[in-house]
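Repro case for the chain-ordering regression, as requested:
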Amino acid sequence: MEQENNSIHDFDIALICEYFSYVERQGPGSPEVTIKALSFIDNLTQNAKIADIGCGTGGQTMVLAQNTPGTILGIDLFPKFVDIFNQNATKLGLTDKAKAIVGSMDNLPFQDEELDLMWSEGAIYNIGFERGLTEWRRFLKKGGYVAVTEASWFTPERPAEIEQFWLDAYPEIDTIPSKVAIMQKAGYIPVATFILPENCWTEHFYAPQVSAQKLFMEKYADNLNAKRLVENLQHEAQLYARYKDYYGYVFYIGKKM
Ligand code: SAM
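-- result from build under test --
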């Protein structure tokens, strides 16, 4: 009998990448939220150096490039996302402000104290919130900022179904005060924390996936793994609709001490 896939981690990474290359964002977020997070960051100048770690196809990076001085280097593990990022930057006339390269967040190509701002929407979980904040800190100038989004619990307790789903998907999910304490311990002043509004999930993340799923299933009509991947993502969207009072993404903005 075929094995059931329970977690996104069970799927072929190439298939996941192709699926998410059909949509503008690979994680929850919105232009408004990127701009709101940016409003907590001061001291950026024309010479500012910014990194967007786990940039994906650059949905949020293009917004950053349009709303900050300085230059942004996007870094992502997947060449397909990096190619789409650079095509988007060209289309939007932003190549002098933003470009992406292939790289890994656990081996970043920066000098110590080179960066003014390290951005990462929906991606730090790949290395872990605590490890990412701790390891990335040395690349920031003193007084530089880190701004990341991270899956977080809103309540001290929650229903077993959603607790189990997240413990499988990302065991480091925790409450907002716990995450803030981790940020402080990693050597940052926690400057701001805010919950991403629901439309970051519904309108900007799940809704665009509906047409992507149609295209994907037309291309992979006979592929059982593709079918299961789509079912898995639909299940995730249903869980969000049911349990959105208990969890979501939170922006954590910290200043290097
Ligand atoms: N920041 C984008 C957004 O919000 O739309 C993408 C978020 S997506 C949920 C996570 C991203 O992290 C993917 O683009 C994935 O390729 C990238 N990623 C995964 N592991 C990585 C690693 N070790 N180093 C760099 N990027 C990685």
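Ordering looks correct now. Residues 25-27, 29, 54-56, 59-60, 75-78, 81, 104-106, 121-123, 126 surround S-adenosylmethionine (CB under 6 Å).
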